[in-house]
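Re: [ENG-882] Designed sequences occasionally contain unexpected residues at chain ends

Forwarding the minimal case from QA. Structure tokens:
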């Protein structure tokens, strides 16, 4: 039996309805007629997570991926058109924002061109209204609309989907005020632009530019965002499963994300031109501060399964000024293994003012005080820096839990240099798959001698844990020998 043109269109409609990725392949020629479609598995990964938003499984999504991988066109053009057409949701309202108005308008125009095209209309006749059909705003007759705007003026309308594509440009990474402004917009503006706070979705897709960019803001706190991170070159130990079961399919270090478009020779060329700092952020999605590398992430041992733990301690660093936007408080639970190493077991971090700081601290203590097994030794004590808000916290909690103060009398750079040898020797282990592991190592790698880093609150409790728990004769002996070597002195 020979299929008619109507039969072929019906088949195409069904395929597009089932999978966003199939719609992208078939609609590509409308938006990019001069550029052949090149498929990569990362396109499937992005589309599957966007489709999970459509299906109501995710309503907060952060995607970190290098530039040039079709991130904008997938998120801001094809996905909204797919919801209006193949998925039969023309009532959905979209707000598309970027750091620059021209970029947001560009994607608005592309989506309008796609929806208005003969190809789209012959399959999904979504009618646009004549009186609201502009470059930055257009509506359809089912009351759905799409608006583009620079993120600094994201006011007025409320949408079912807020799409924030590239909150920063590259130069923003050098401006503390611009980074703070974007973080403030993320916290204070985005949540107010939603039609239904419980169901409407926010999708942020970007390359990493700085440790305290919008992604850093999200990853440092529990804001409920699903995180899809796709570096250009695979790095073992960084992969983690998302809520829909996705895991980076690559298997060896250096395996490329999109070799069909970025082959090895192109990546090598760009790495040289961009330099270590820019490449680490924009391509590898793990930004570091310039002049850093005092602590190397590769020095940390990684554990998937814990060995027997002799005892545990909690170390904390509280914000010196709780109302200051950039101050964090952090609590870290460490375990001393019978093998002589120390293991980071858990961490919680956020901006808390009293009494929330007290409640969070008590909750973290009780969580680990009740967590006992044959492998985990007793939780002995909590230690907090005896300064500013930490002093008040110690006084408040000393009758409820065993808590004591720590005096940090030397500058942080000196204290970091005191413990670097322990880390390089492999005595400090962090969990392989924990959600906080990447941010922890990124902050350690970003630490500099000239105080150019923005956040370093996770480092102080680590130093305290190393100084308290690795003072056995065995470790001191090993470190003493190691520090004699030329390689160790050179690295320091």
């Amino acid at each position: 039996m020979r299929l008619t043109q109507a039969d072929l269109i019906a088949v195409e409609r069904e395929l597009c309805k089932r999978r966003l990725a199939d719609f992208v392949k078939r609609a590509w020629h409308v938006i990019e007629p001069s550029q052949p479609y090149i498929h990569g598995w990362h396109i499937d990964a992005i589309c599957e997570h966007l489709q999970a938003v459509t299906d109501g499984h995710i309503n907060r999504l952060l995607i970190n991926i290098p530039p040039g991988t079709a991130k904008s066109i997938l998120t801001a053009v094809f996905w909204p058109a797919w919801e209006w057409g193949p998925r039969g949701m023309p009532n959905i309202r979209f707000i598309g924002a970027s750091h620059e108005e021209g970029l947001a308008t560009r994607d608005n125009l592309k989506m309008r061109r796609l929806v208005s095209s003969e190809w789209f209309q012959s399959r999904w006749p979504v009618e646009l209204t004549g009186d609201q059909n502009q470059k930055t705003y257009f509506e359809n007759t089912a009351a759905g609309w799409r608006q583009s705007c620079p993120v600094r003026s994201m006011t007025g309308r409320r949408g079912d989907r807020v799409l924030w594509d590239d909150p920063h440009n590259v130069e923003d990474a050098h401006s503390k005020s611009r980074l703070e402004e974007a973080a403030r917009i993320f916290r204070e503006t985005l949540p107010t632009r939603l039609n239904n706070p419980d169901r409407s979705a926010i999708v942020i897709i970007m390359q990493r530019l700085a440790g305290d960019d919008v992604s850093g803001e999200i990853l440092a706190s529990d804001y409920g965002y699903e995180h899809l991170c796709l570096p250009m070159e695979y790095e073992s130990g960084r992969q983690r499963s998302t809520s829909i079961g996705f895991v980076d399919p690559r298997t060896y270090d250096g395996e490329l994300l999109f070799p069909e478009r970025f082959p090895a020779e192109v990546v090598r060329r760009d790495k040289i031109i961009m330099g270590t700092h820019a490449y680490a952020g924009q391509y590898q999605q793990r930004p570091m501060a310039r002049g850093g590398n005092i602590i190397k992430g590769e020095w940390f041992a990684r554990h998937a399964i814990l060995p027997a733990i002799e005892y545990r301690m909690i170390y904390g660093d509280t914000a010196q000024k709780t109302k200051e936007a950039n101050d964090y408080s952090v609590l870290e639970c460490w375990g001393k293994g019978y093998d002589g190493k120390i293991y980071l077991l858990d961490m919680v971090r956020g901006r808390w003012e009293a009494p929330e700081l007290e409640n969070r601290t008590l909750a973290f203590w009780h969580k680990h005080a009740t967590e006992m097994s044959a492998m985990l030794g007793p939780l002995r004590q909590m230690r907090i820096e005896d300064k500013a808000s930490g002093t008040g916290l110690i006084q408040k909690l000393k009758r409820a839990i065993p808590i004591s103060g720590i005096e940090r009398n030397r500058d942080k750079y000196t204290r970091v240099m005191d413990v670097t040898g322990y880390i390089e020797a492999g005595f400090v282990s962090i969990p392989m798959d924990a959600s906080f592991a990447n941010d922890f190592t990124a902050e350690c790698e970003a630490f500099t001698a000239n105080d150019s880093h923005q956040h370093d609150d996770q480092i102080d409790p680590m130093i305290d844990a190393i100084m308290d728990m690795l003072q056995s004769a065995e470790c001191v002996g090993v470190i003493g020998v190691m520090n004699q070597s030329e390689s160790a002195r050179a690295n320091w």
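QA comment: On inspection the terminal residues look reasonable. The longest helix spans residues 264-283. Proposing we downgrade this to a documentation issue.
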